[in-house]
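Escalation from tier 1.

The customer reports that the assembly of two entities below gives different structure tokens on two consecutive runs. Tier 1 could not reproduce it. I'm attaching the input and our single run for tier 2 to review.
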Amino acid sequence: MAEILQYVHMDAFLHRLHPYTKILFIIVVSVMAIVATDIPFLILMVIAMLAFAAYGRLLGESLRQLKLILVMSVIFILITVITMPNGETIAYLIPQGIPVIGGLVPITTGGLMIGVVLMLRFMILIFAFQLFLVSTQPRDIVHAMEKIRIPTDYILMFIIALRFIPTLQIEGQRIHEAQLARGFNPGTGFIGKIRSVAPIVIPLVSNALVRSNVLGLTIDMRGYRTGRRTHVHERVFAGRDYAVITILAVAGAGFIALFLAQMV
Amino acid sequence: MIELTNVSYTYPRTVHPALHRISLSLEKGRCIMVTGPSGAGKTSLCLAATGILHHEYGGRKEGTVTVDHRNVEEYPTLSDLAQNVGIVFDDPEAQMIFTTVEEEILSALEHRGLPVPIIEERLEGIIRTTYLEKIRDRSPHHLSGGQKQRVALAATLALGNEILVLDEPTSELDEHATNRIAEILSDLKRQGKTILLVEHKYHHFREIVDTLVVLENGEITASGAPGQVLEDPRVRGMLYPDFSSVQKAVRQPAGDGPAIEVRGLTHSYGEVTALSGIDLAIRRGEFVAIVGENGSGKTTLVKHFNRLLSPTSGDVVVNGKNTKACSIAELARDVGLVFQNPDHMFFADTVRDEIAYGVQNLGIADAGTAIDAALRDAGLEGSADLYPRWLSRGERQRLAIACVVAMQPGIIVLDEPTTGLDGYETLEVIGLLKNLQQKGHMIVIITHNREIASRCADRVISMESGRIVSDTGGA
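Tier 1 run:
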């Protein structure tokens, strides 16, 4: 089963970077992706993300997200085409040959462009966050975030939310099988589909609530919330961190310069 | 080290006390084992003994609890209590928070305010004691229940406290994994740790138990040296189910051909071969037990009976129908499958509605009669209007069986139906199954418990690495 956004234990370039460097990486990349509107530039950034992943031996992990990205892309493009018609009409979503409704919902260059921009931004953000999560032990995330004074409880919440995604996937699968054995009917039609969700969702949520109680007590009784700690194998800034920070600084400065030049 | 004096406790919004006038004294370096039927208040006792009850739960409390000669209410927070007492729960999954074994233990160690070299030394020591050397870099999703439970124990040990409370740490584990936990606990006891253990599996832990306590309906009904307490036949039956009352099938199964026939069955998950070349025929009315270690392919095999899994190669024929040509819904009429954890299926508001779900899915005529009969068979007539999740573990297990029985399949398959049950509850489940066999159902159970297999089943099939290695009734 594909494990979404889980830390992968290995020793490679990205794993050896300091968590702060990686957090800075996410911030710079996110700002650039959100501010930029130029399609070739965004495509360049996507390629840069993949190259960065490949250098950290994580290209396979990145490519596993393609299915999700593809689905989201189609949705983005559909929404912008429908809601933001602008520029020249190149085709119609409903072919003109069909009587009455034919020719409705024009596909315009403007709508399409915005859709593609959104899709590329989404790709960059997903790749960047995934590289961070896959290459950083939650323990290091806790330490890094604590140092910048984010309360421990919030950090634990964040980490647990990620940690239990695969657990819920597996549990959902088991519940589904148990209900199939009882003649579970996936339902037809919209209402039927919604109703048929109850036998799966109710046990899943009830069990998760019971489990969260044990989890909460475990966290308390292991003293994870005291915040007083010694850090073993503390990460130190090394040459590679300075190299990455320099690249980020140059890219950021170049980006600002370009942005200002365009404004003028 | 832990002292409970006249402790009574009632949960918020309930009337009946979960604990009633409990007095218990656990001295340094000793081990108390608490046992009793499900719903007797064993978990509440663990929560009380660690001070969690006083710090985290509302409800009515009486009496005093001291940990390390200090009243638990005097500890400012749970984290302070955690410096003195550690607890391991029964759910292995909920106790792994981080992403590798080593990280989990290290995270707990880092809270002791020790210098780095000492932390590293302790880490190695704990990993050795809990036999985690080979899996220290694994993630939780690649660990078995037993391995996760050892990690939970290791992370608790990392806190360095002298008192350990364990709430049914082996209930989800097989024989082998239970033995591992028992070995670790006897090591810890030798090192001088004080242990409060809630368990059913007395014989695994008999070497370390100094005092045996029986808890029933929130009260201590027996307490003392194990040898003495076990003289009471009632207590004996709780820990060692007495299968002598269980009768083997009187009448031989009707010889009208096999109801399940498996031919050359192979199943692979990706590159892993879970089953290879299984040939098997089971006749109507037989009571079959399948035994074997975790990962030997038992569950994979039975999931083929109702086509939750399809063969990679080979055939499975149920009541003359090749499963390849049937849907799961069709096969639900022939084969009822009860999974290990009953909580994976309950979603209705009452026991009756829960049973009705499967019956309605199959559109069985005269549903009311079928449901009533299933309730009666499972001994749940009195609980028909209760909320399923309020029942005790033993009752929930029987409800899970009733849900399947009401669908009237000729073949009933159960995965580990006695997990987490005491001796009497185990006997109730076995009695129910024997009864169903008498009515003509074929029963197939998967079990780790070789005694249940040999004493109750007519035929025992042993599996090892995806193959059948022995079969006492092979045709």
